[in-house]
Amino acid sequence: MNFSRTSIGLYLALVFASGTTLGWFGNRYYAAREAAISGDQTKAKYRRSFDPNDFRKQYLAGMKKQLLLSEDQVQKLSNVLDETRSLMNELQKRQLPEQFEIQNAQQAKIRAIFDDVQLQKYDQMLERMRQGNRNKNKGSADNTKPDKH
Hints:
Layout: H1 5-38, H2 41-49, H3 52-67, H4 71-113, H5 116-137
Helix pairs in contact: 3-4
């Protein structure tokens, strides 16, 4: 059986399109299955596994290797990172009170919209959110966020 170039090209295009479609559906199925199995555990696992100190070590090691830094340069880079971390922590501490003021003003405006039944449900919802935040931040060494909103 002789096939023309056109029919061979069409068969190859059909095989390629079938593979692409099957791959796309397979990926969607796998992603949906993983999301259903793990739920929010995947996100929680990522949050727990991210350690700024480990990131810093990897960053310094990568910089040293790629830029061929001397030990003196690595120490100076480390000092710059320490100084920046300190400045960012100070900035966050200065901003937190203002952030909480804004949140409190928002909640007061929201509360003015609701009737008594809705207010009760809203308060319960806020308490569940606070409890979830407490559980999420449990064990966190630098928990500067107060419980009261």
